[in-house]
Specification:
Length: 315
Amino acid sequence: MVERLKLNHIYVSPTALRLLLKSGNDYVVKYDRSSLRKLGCVGEPLNHQAWEWFYDVVGEKRCDIIDTWWQTETGGICISPRPSEVGAEIIPAMPMRPMPGISLALVDKKGQEIDADKGALCIKKPWPGIARSIYGNHQRFLDTYFVSAPGFYYTGDGAHRYDGGHFQITGRMDDVLNVSGHRIGTAEIEDVMDDHPDISETAVVGFPHEIKGEGIYAYAVLKDGRKKSKKDIEIELKDLIKKKIGGLALPEIILFTPSLPRTRSGKIMRRILRKIAKDDFNDLGDTSTLADPETVTFIVDKHVELMKELKSKKK
């Protein structure tokens, strides 16, 4: 479509990028992309490997990447780089600065504003485009966005605040694991795993652990054409995590799968992955939006197989 319509801008999700990345460069480089000027991304945190591939391969190292953060409920982009400004700085895999009129804050578990560099992302003041209610259920609207941090709009996302007022989205707050009393963001682990040259994408969830309280369960999708064995890749992944984050972030289980369960709009259905990790796959809940049920069947079967292997090793 870029070649045929001579598109100047494209705006895609990290999921779409990782799917292309998994298949290799040939699906992209065979088309003329000289018309492209800006590359946009939205939907979930964009990991560094996907960002670099987007810039190097799709954009031919000449197109700015505008990695944006917003929600349907916000009515428009709230955090974004400004590539058109003179001397503009773009930091890879980071939305960076709030848009004009958007006043951001970080809050703690009690909903109190904090000066720390990590916390739950909130918006302090009303802005044009903010949702006013949920049709037919205003109380749910209040409970979801205004109870956790009274006086603020609670986004439900975690963020890291850097010097200069730059913000990095770390993922959903309910995607933070409590491992041996330490809070670890799943996006942080995924970002490290995604940097492995044979991995196209990952999803990390927690599961009950009798000693740690919560264990780490990682689902990983391998790129096509890999030469290393799964065992070697698993060892390398754990070495990467230990080096970049620490031993506390090591997954107890890494399940390799051809793909991850997604909605028809492309979002990973982490709820299903959590259920499988907890051995609760007989009641996966509503799967009406699931794009590929066969993916779930494969993961469940593989999970059962892995659990049997682990139990046999303990005997």
